[in-house]
Each structure stands twice: as structure tokens, then as C-alpha cells.
Specification:
heterotrimer; A alpha/beta; B mainly alpha; C mainly alpha; A: 2 domains; 13 helices; globular; disordered N terminus; B: mainly alpha; two-stranded antiparallel sheet; 2 strands; 1% strand
């Protein structure tokens, strides 16, 4: 992957330094100096109704109040989020066009798609991470296991018998499942579905037998005893389900990561202002509660942290994707 | 009687004054956006979502559901009046509904569409109240194997959508299937026939193809024969259906409702199946199938009933299992979660007020639609009095904006332009685009289910015959094929004997 | 009068289908086909294209059996005007904004028929443009610029 080297451009680097300072609370002066003169667009590269869309519609009005300009939410679905991301990558670099999406897709895109029309690491500038939503590992009631260890033992005894549902080839839960199977030395069939809802439906009906998927979509079925929850990613137990770490499973930081980015080469002061405002919005108790209802925790952070996360995720997931030979296009 | 109790709980919620108000607002907004081609209920509901945060959950859901079925209703109006299908289901309404309008029976077509929808809505409400639990269990029995067989049945039935040669219809179904394969392959992630255009990677959008081939191609052809189109602008007679009309339409309504209620429950079936299959059924049952495509009243009544019944019973998986049947239901789940309500299998036990309130409000909403729209029919029809020289540029403009609005992309406008040219070519060579559109919608699903079934069964073809539901569906396919081919065989033999 | 009269409708439809099928076969030539139990991404496109090719050849062959119906003559004016109207919308909507694009689209579409009266058409175009701006931008918040940006 010589094409997508991860060195940020120098302007971006400067921006990140300034933004990091902003994150440390030194933002008062540059933030006040930086004003928005036109309406701001938040591009959501998925259809309305998904987690990214709902987040954008939550944050939009608050951001509008903070910067004194209308904030328009624009859904630009297509090509696994790449169409919308490309729009933002090619927008004027003035911080008036924002991208809110599942940033895991940005980390996998360079490895999945060889003909990408933009470079997620070079053409986009991280503004702030927004939330993290944990994944639940669950099985259909017909699988005779009660714990994650039993599942691993069962998979070893019956290679290829389990069918692991995912939300699409190259989706974050597909890659998580592939890398988990590899690290545990087990095999299961990876069965792709069109989206997370179709995948959970298939496991509830028993068409597939295992799933790794967002907690909000999965836990109700666990509560209703149609699925057995074995482990959950992130740092805390939910509904008494042990964490991946406790269960001895690899990949405990897998899940949905949602973040806001803007066009690369946007002046650092603008990014700093946006980062500060979004950080404030994410501390709002109402927003925190709404995000918790979406099964997530708010994760505000400095642009540099976000950039580091994106860089390391791109490398790590890229390795898994190349090794497993997963392709987004030919 | 549990059913009675449940409906009573529901009605007491739905008939609260403020919920009646929300229902009315919902159906009004829904009708208005449904009439505009292209702009569907999904972006509208997304747009209104933030406004519902401050509302009570029941009121919010009642309003959003109202937008949904109001839009279905408005879509039929556009299909009948100007032959522009804004969504999959209205393609079928175009076939005979617009023909009726051309014969000066637009008012009748609209009235029958409204009555069929209301009838289906009433029955579907009772179906949901009575049968939602067993139906949801049935829906879970449908795996990739059963869906595949169901779709094969749907495609074979599509042949009857057009009149004339079976070979021409079959070739259009195949062309639709091929167009449906454009985009990134779900099972392998490989791009197919995208020619490096990123906008093609999710496949061809249905709306630009349908609006190009139906609406725009028809406009071009209309402008070529000035004498004929004045028929549309003629005085419109017969707003209220006569007793004879109702008698002709009623059996179709009943059959459409039954078919729609059953197919709507299946979360993977797609909105296309109920109206298409109802049309196919009516044409098969008709004494004189040649009337279809020339303004047959059953061709409007059956599919409209099927569509509305299916739209309502598609709430069953959501309400009983917490499983969204389509993108719109997923949006509803989002709305519920914003209200702090965890959708899922337990929702019916924990939130009976909400669930039954929404169900009862659907019936109330359908009644409102009927009451509002019957008087409005006159107004809609008078739109046809606008001289055609002004009407058609307006349709062209609204098609352009509507197509753009689907995913905010100009690519879809170009696609519609191409499809308009192809649709015009089809009119010239005498083929009809309806089977193509069904192929386009069902093709990707057909392949997806087939490959998943094979993957899960380790490549064993016999699963399609060993699973009872699938085997039953395939038997129907075989019978239909035999019925279609036998006249040809018989004719062939007669010719052979004559020689 | 022994000249072979081809059925032009079957001939054109057949040629169209053959061309589409050939194009699809060419576009998917590099995709792996796999086998029935484990189909590659190229399996379905190939099966469908070959079937379509078959139908195309069938119509071509059938056209030789003689004309059964004639094609109405093509009139270029409505065809070109309507297509151009859509094209001009696609070219101008994002650059010049909805207001101007709407006027241009309606005026161009109006050229499709001789019945159009220039003054009336102009007024109607302005009216529709205002209506579209109000409806799609103000009410439905369609993310399309109103004026050139």
C-alpha cells in the first residue's frame, strides 16, 4: 500500500498540533476568532435512520446554536459510505462541510477498494470522535453453549458448522469475525447479509447461528431468550454479559466508532473551534442520554487522538483484510 | 376476548384528541409528499424525526406511520393521473389506472383506489390484532431457501404483467434481472458492470428507471400523437363508482387484501411483491384477460388493496419481533429508540398502549384518508384540465427534482434521461417495461438468497425440495409454467397436423 | 415483389438485446464464475446474459418471417426537447441553482411541441421555479442550492 502512506500533510500536522492545544483547554482565543459565515453541511454518507444519521440530527441543532449558522444534514448514501466521504474530501477546505460516519469504514476503505477516489487519511481532517457502540457476541438458542469458552470449544469440535452472520462483505463485524476466528484457531462460515438488521433477523430465525453485532440491535433478543449473549466488547458489562476481556476473547475494542471529519487543509483554527463546540455538545446531559439510548457512550477527543486511532485502525484492519483476501471491488 | 380488549386499548389511545391531530397531520404530510414523484416517505420521516423528540411516543409513532401510508396513497394519485410511478408499488397502478384516466375515468380510478385501500386497511388492522403472533412465527420460518422459491414464483408471474407475446415479456424480465445485477455483489464484494462509476456501486435506483421508462417515455410518445392525448383533458365523467363498478372491483379487493396481508409479513419479500402478484392473479382469473392494460377496474382495485394491506402487515415483524422489514421500519425503530423505548420482542407486552394505539391509528388514519380524499378527487381530476402544453413541462421538472432527491445525486437524473430514451425505444418496438421493473427489483434478492441458501446447505440443491414451504411454492411455479406453455404446445401440434 | 420484408420491430428489439447481452458479457468477462454450489460473482451475469442473447437471436430470426406490424415514424422534436430538458437540469442544477435550472428545464421541455406559446411558457416557468424552490428547498429541505454558488 504505497499509495496511501499515513503521513499527514504538513498543514494538517500543524492543524493537529493547534487542535491538540485546543483540546487541552487553550482554545478560548482562537475559538473566538473563528467565525462561520455560511450554513454548515453535515454529510451523512448513509441512508436516513441509521446510527450516523440519528447522531447528526441530534448534534446538528446544538451545533447550529453554538456557531450561529444553520446546520443542514445531507444524506449521501452509496458505495459503503465512500460517495459521501468523497464529497467532503473534495469540498472547499473551510470547515463548512462536515462528515459524520462510522469511521471504521474509513479505516477499511483503502484496503477494501483499490479504486478509491479519495484518500481517507490525506483528504479528510479528523475533527472529533463522537461515540463508541459495543458489539455483542451472541448465538441462536439451538447452539448448545452458554459461555464464550464453550463456543470456542464447540467450534473447534465442529469445524465449519457454525454460520457467522455479518452485515456485509468488509463490514466491521465481518472483519472482527475473521480476525477472531484466526486468533482463536477456529473456522466458521461467514455469511454476508445486507445490513445489520437482516443479519440479526437471520440469527433469530436460526438461518445463521452466530452473530457479532451492535448491542442495541442484539440485546433485546437476548433479553427475550431468543439469542444467548456470550460476550460484549468495550470496558463494561451490560445486562450481566461478560466483556471480551473477561471471556478471554481477542478484539475487545471492536464496535461502532462514529466520528466527525472535515476537508483536509481546513485552517487549524476552524478545526479547533469545531472540536471545542462538539466537545461541549457531547457533555450535554440530554445528548449523553440520547446516545446511551442508541447503545453507545460519548467519546469526545482531540483531533490528534482521532487521527492516531484512524491511522492504527487502517494498518491493523488493512492487515487482516489483505491476509483474508477480502475484496470490496476487483 | 383478548382481541377486543387490545383493540379497545388501542382505540382509546388513537382517539385521544391530540393523537387524532397527529394522525391527521401525518396523513396530510404523507399524501402531499406521496403525490410528488421521487420524494418518498423515508427522507420526510428522517426530516421530521427531531421534531418528534419532544412528543409522547404514541403520538410520534402515530404521526410517522401516518406519513408512511399517506405517502402510499398519494403515490397512487400521481400514477393514475400522469403515469409517473414514484415507487415500486405504483408501477402496477400505472398499468390500468392511467389507462382509465385516459378514457376519462380518472375520478373512478381514484375513488376505487381509495376505497380499496380503506377496505384493505380495515381488514389488515383486524389481521394484525388477531394474527400478528402466529404470522410473525411464520415469517421466521422463511429462510433464504423459501425466499428464493417465492421470488422465482414472483418472476414467473411477472410475465402476465404485459399483454402480448410471452417471449417479449420473458426477455424483459431477463433484461431487468441483468440490470439488477449492476453494482457491488453482496456475497463477494466484487463490482459488476459498474464501469468505474462509484454511483453505480449500490446498483441502479428503481425510481429513475421507472420514471424514465414510464413517465418521460410516455410524454415523448404522447407528444407525437396530438390527437389522442386530448382525451385526457376531456370532461371527466363519473366521479363516484356505480354499483356495477363496485361489484366488479370487490372480489379483486378481497383477494388483493388476502395476498397483501400474507406477503407483507415477510420481512425479506420487498414491497414489490404484493401489488405485482395481485395484478397477476386478477389477470389469470379474469374471464377476458385482454381487458387488462386497457383500464380494467380490477387491475386497480386488487393491487391497491394488496399494497395497502402489505404496507400495514409489514408492521407485524416490527411490533412483535422488533425486526424491521425494510428501511422505513428501521427508521421507525430509530424513532422509538430516541423515545427511550427499546424495540424488540418484548415491546408488545411492555408497551401495549403504544403498540395497539399505533395499530388502531392505522385504521383511523385510513378512514381519514378516505374522508379527505373522496372530496379531493374532483380537485385532482381538474388538474387534468390544465392544457397538456403546460402540464408536461411541469411533470418533466418534478421528475428531475424528485429523482435528484432520492439520494441527492445528479447521477440519477442522467440515469433517468437514459431510461427515457430506452423507454421510448421500447414503445416503438412494442415491448412493455413493467416486467423489466419487477426483474430489476427482485433480481438482486433472487441471487442473494440463492447463493446464501447454497452456502448454508454446502451446495446441496435438494434443500429447495426438501423444505415443505419451498417445495410447495416451486410446485405452483411448475403449474404456472405448464399453463403458460401448454397453449403454445397445443398450437404447435395443431399447426403440425394441419401441415 | 419477392424482396424479403423484415419485421422491423423484432429486428430492432433483437439487435438491442444482442447488443446489451454482448456488452454485459464483455463487462463481466474477468469475474470468476465458480460453479453452481459455490457461485462466483460472474455466475449470474453470465447465465442471464446468455439467456438474453438467446432471446435476442430468437427475435432476429423471427424478424425474417415477415412484417406483422409497422413502427410509427419517429418524430425528433419531442424526443430531443424532452431529453435535452432533463439533460440541462442535470448540467445546471448544482452549478446555477434550482431557480435557474427549473426555468431552463421548463422552457426547453416546452420546445417539444408547436402548441407552446413563448410568453405563457416563460411566465409558467417562473411560476414553477418559485413553487419548486418553496416546496423542495424551504419545506422539504432538499440540499440543492437555490442560486449559483
Amino acid at each position: 500500500m504505497s499509495r496511501s502512506s499515513f503521513r499527514p500533510s504538513s498543514a494538517l500536522a500543524k492543524g493537529l498540533v493547534l487542535a491538540a492545544l485546543a483540546g487541552l483547554g487553550l482554545s478560548a482565543a482562537p475559538a473566538a476568532a473563528q467565525n462561520f459565515e455560511r450554513p454548515v453541511r453535515i454529510v451523512v454518507p448513509f441512508a436516513p435512520g441509521g446510527t450516523s444519521d440519528i447522531l447528526a440530527r441530534l448534534i446538528g441543532p446544538k451545533l447550529s446554536a453554538a456557531i450561529g449558522q444553520p446546520v443542514v444534514i445531507e444524506n449521501k448514501p452509496g458505495a459503503a459510505g465512500n460517495l459521501g466521504a468523497d464529497t467532503v474530501a473534495k469540498a472547499p477546505a473551510d470547515g463548512h462541510t462536515l462528515l459524520l460516519m462510522d469511521v471504521g469504514s474509513l479505516a477499511t476503505a483503502p484496503s477494501l477498494f483499490s479504486d478509491l477516489t479519495y484518500d481517507p487519511n490525506k483528504d479528510l481532517a479528523p475533527v472529533s470522535m463522537v461515540m463508541f457502540g459495543p458489539y455483542v457476541l451472541a448465538v441462536h438458542e439451538s447452539v448448545p453453549v452458554k459461555t464464550a469458552q464453550e463456543l470456542v470449544a464447540y467450534a473447534k469440535a465442529n469445524p465449519g458448522k457454525l454460520a457467522m452472520a455479518n452485515s456485509g462483505v468488509g463490514a466491521a463485524n465481518h472483519i472482527t469475525a475473521v480476525s477472531m476466528a484466526k486468533e482463536l484457531g477456529i473456522t466458521w462460515k461467514n455469511v454476508p447479509y445486507k445490513g445489520g438488521a437482516a443479519a440479526s433477523r437471520a440469527v433469530v430465525s436460526g438461518e445463521s447461528t452466530v452473530i457479532i453485532n451492535g448491542s442495541t440491535a442484539t440485546l433485546p433478543f437476548v433479553a427475550n431468550k431468543q439469542l444467548v449473549g456470550l460476550a460484549i466488547t468495550g470496558e463494561e458489562r451490560i445486562s450481566g454479559i461478560p466483556t471480551f476481556k473477561e471471556a478471554g476473547l481477542p478484539g475487545g475494542d471492536a464496535g461502532t466508532w462514529q466520528g466527525i471529519l472535515t476537508t483536509a487543509k481546513t485552517p487549524p483554527a476552524v478545526i479547533a473551534r469545531l472540536n471545542a463546540e462538539i466537545g461541549k455538545i457531547l457533555q450535554d446531559p440530554e445528548i449523553k442520554a440520547k446516545i446511551a439510548e442508541q447503545g453507545g457512550v460519548v467519546k469526545p477527543g482531540a483531533p490528534t487522538e482521532f487521527a492516531d486511532w484512524l491511522k492504527s485502525a487502517t494498518e491493523r484492519w488493512g492487515g487482516i483484510i489483505r491476509e483474508a483476501g477480502i475484496k470490496g471491488t476487483n | 376476548m383478548e382481541l377486543f380488549d387490545n383493540l379497545l386499548i388501542g382505540l382509546s389511545t388513537a382517539l385521544e384528541l391530540k393523537n387524532l391531530g397527529f394522525c391527521l397531520i401525518g396523513v396530510l404530510i404523507g399524501t402531499a409528499i406521496g403525490v410528488l414523484p421521487g420524494i418518498g416517505p423515508i427522507p420526510t420521516i428522517a426530516l421530521l424525526l427531531p421534531f418528534t423528540f419532544g412528543m409522547e411516543p404514541a403520538g410520534a409513532m402515530i404521526m410517522l406511520a401516518g406519513i408512511f401510508y399517506g405517502a402510499q396513497y398519494g403515490g397512487s394519485t400521481t400514477a393514475i393521473l400522469v403515469n409517473v410511478p414514484g415507487e415500486t408499488s405504483s408501477v402496477v397502478t400505472c398499468l390500468d389506472g392511467h389507462q382509465m384516466a385516459r378514457q376519462g375515468r380518472a375520478g373512478l380510478a381514484l375513488a376505487i383506489a381509495a376505497l380499496s385501500s380503506f377496505f384493505a386497511g380495515t381488514v389488515a388492522t383486524i389481521v394484525i390484532a388477531l394474527l400478528s403472533v402466529p404470522l410473525a412465527a411464520l415469517a421466521l420460518k422463511f429462510t433464504a431457501v423459501e425466499y428464493f422459491s417465492l421470488l422465482v414464483l414472483g418472476l414467473i408471474a411477472a410475465v402476465v404483467l404485459a399483454h402480448g407475446s410471452v417471449a417479449r415479456s420473458l426477455s424483459m424480465v431477463l433484461l431487468g434481472l441483468l440490470l439488477g445485477l449492476v453494482g457491488i455483489d453482496v456475497s463477494s464484494g466484487a463490482a459488476r458492470m459498474t464501469f468505474g462509476v462509484p454511483a453505480l456501486s449500490d446498483g441502479l435506483d428503481f425510481v429513475p428507471v421507472a420514471m424514465g421508462m414510464f413517465g418521460l417515455a410516455e410524454i415523448i410518445a404522447n407528444l407525437e400523437r396530438p390527437a389522442e392525448r386530448h382525451v385526457v383533458s376531456q370532461a371527466v365523467r363519473g366521479l363516484i363508482p356505480s354499483w356495477a363498478d363496485l361489484k366488479q372491483a370487490f372480489p379483486a379487493m378481497v383477494r388483493g387484501t388476502a395476498l397483501g396481508s400474507a406477503l407483507g409479513v415477510l420481512p425479506g419479500g420487498g414491497a414489490a411483491l404484493p401489488p405485482f402478484s395481485s395484478y397477476a392473479l386478477e389477470k389469470k382469473l379474469a374471464k377476458d384477460p385482454s381487458r387488462f392494460g386497457h383500464g380494467a377496474i380490477e387491475g386497480v382495485a386488487g393491487p391497491e388493496a394488496a399494497n395497502n394491506a402489505g404496507a400495514q402487515t409489514s408492521f407485524i415483524p416490527l411490533l412483535t419481533l422488533g425486526i424491521p422489514a425494510n428501511a422505513l421500519m428501521a427508521l421507525m425503530i430509530g424513532a422509538l429508540m430516541m423515545q427511550g423505548i427499546q424495540p424488540g420482542p418484548q415491546i408488545m407486552r411492555e408497551q401495549p398502549q403504544l403498540v395497539w394505539g399505533v395499530i388502531a391509528s392505522m385504521w383511523v388514519g385510513n378512514l381519514m384518508l378516505l374522508v379527505i380524499n373522496l372530496p379531493l378527487i374532483g380537485l385532482w381530476v381538474s388538474m387534468l384540465r390544465i392544457p397538456y402544453r403546460l402540464l408536461f413541462p411541469a411533470i418533466v421538472l418534478f421528475c428531475c427534482i424528485g429523482t435528484y432527491g432520492i439520494s441527492n445525486s445528479l447521477f440519477n437524473v442522467w440515469l433517468m434521461l437514459g431510461c427515457a430514451a430506452i423507454g421510448y425505444f421500447f414503445i416503438k418496438v412494442g415491448v412493455e417495461p413493467a416486467p423489466l421493473l419487477l426483474g430489476l427489483v427482485l433480481g438482486p434478492q433472487l441471487e442473494e438468497y440463492f447463493r446464501r441458501a447454497m452456502l448454508l446447505a454446502d451446495g446441496d440443491f435438494s434443500v429447495f425440495l426438501t423444505r415443505p414451504i419451498s417445495a410447495g411454492l416451486l410446485v405452483v411455479v411448475a403449474l404456472l409454467l405448464a399453463a403458460m406453455l401448454s397453449p403454445m404446445v397445443v398450437r404447435g401440434r395443431k399447426q403440425a397436423l394441419a401441415e | 415483389m419477392t424482396r424479403l420484408r423484415l419485421d422491423r420491430r423484432d429486428l430492432l428489439l433483437g439487435a438491442f438485446l444482442v447488443a446489451v447481452a454482448a456488452g454485459a458479457l464483455y463487462a463481466t468477462r474477468t469475474l470468476s464464475v465458480g460453479h453452481a454450489a459455490d457461485m462466483g460473482p460472474g455466475y449470474m451475469p453470465r447465465v442471464v446474459s446468455l439467456a438474453l442473447l438467446g432471446f435476442g437471436l430468437f427475435f432476429l430470426a423471427r424478424s425474417a418471417r415477415g412484417a406483422t406490424a409497422t413502427i410509427e415514424p419517429v418524430r425528433l422534436r419531442p424526443l430531443l426537447a424532452v431529453l435535452a430538458a432533463v439533460g440541462v437540469f442535470a448540467l445546471t442544477a448544482e452549478r446555477l441553482g434550482l431557480a435557474i435550472a427549473s426555468v431552463l428545464t421548463v422552457l426547453l421541455a416546452g420546445l417539444a411541441t408547436r402548441e407552446t406559446k413563448p410568453l405563457e411558457s416563460m411566465g409558467f416557468a417562473l411560476l414553477l421555479s418559485a413553487l419548486a424552490a418553496l416546496l423542495f428547498i424551504k419545506v422539504l429541505a432538499l440540499p440543492i442550492p437555490l442560486w449559483p454558488r
